[in-house]
Amino acid sequence: WYRESIIGCMFDRNTSPPSGAPGVWRLECPANQGAAIFADDVALLKLEDVDEYEFMASIRLAAVGSVQVRAGYTTSNGSNSEPSSGIYFSLDGSGNWQGECRDASTSTLVTSAVSAVGIASLRFNYDASVPDVEFFVNGTSIGTCTTNLPAATTAGWPVKIQMVDSGNTFPWIDIDGAGYTLRWDTEAR
Questions:
Q1: What are residue 186's phi and psi, to 5 degrees?
Q2: How many Cβ atoms from other residues are within 10 Å of residue 77's Cβ?
Q3: Where in the chain does DSSP place strands (E)?
Q4: How do residues 93-134 score in pLDDT, each as one tens digit?
Q5: Which three-class secondary structure state does DSSP give residue 87?
Q6: How far apart are CA 105 and CA 101, in angstroms?
Q7: pTM for this one?
Q8: What whole-number distance in Å separates Cα of residue 126 and Cα of residue 117?
Q9: Phi and psi for 19 in degrees, rounded to 5?
Q10: Spatial distance between the Cα atoms of 101 and 132, rounded to a whole number of angstroms
């Protein structure tokens, strides 16, 4: 039910992970070479099809510099461009994690003071009954988003970690785990 795919510059399993840990995947890009993407390529998800959706990822960044990172649910097709819609984590101008709800190229940001450099546990919960999204970094809520949620009929990849380099930093991301959980009320459907 889940199959990962790698798109972009370079993908390496078990290359210099923390403590040589097995199962860590690395995405990296030579400087100025575009994007590297880790994604679930089995099926697209429409928010209208679920009551609750939870995204989880454990990742490590060495530096932020000229790197853009997006981790979560996006409509991006694998290009370097920002998705038109999605619910994901991204970096602010200071290199801190932020939650982002985006619909029709308009975003609502949930900011934090948590640096993206180092290991981070990222999670968000989408609740269709409200509707809202609560973002968590390292187990602590950084806030809730209720505006610019993607249209319920918009199809997106349920797990996507995208890195785009626009400078000379030779960036990389270690992915220790990424996944999602879906819940729906079968009696109401």
A1: -70, -25
A2: 11
A3: 4-8, 10-13, 25-28, 34-40, 45-46, 52-61, 67-74, 86-91, 96-103, 106-115, 118-127, 132-137, 140-145, 155-165, 172-183
A4: 888 999 999 999 999 999 999 999 889 999 999 999 999 999
A5: strand
A6: 10
A7: 0.84
A8: 26
A9: 60, 20
A10: 10
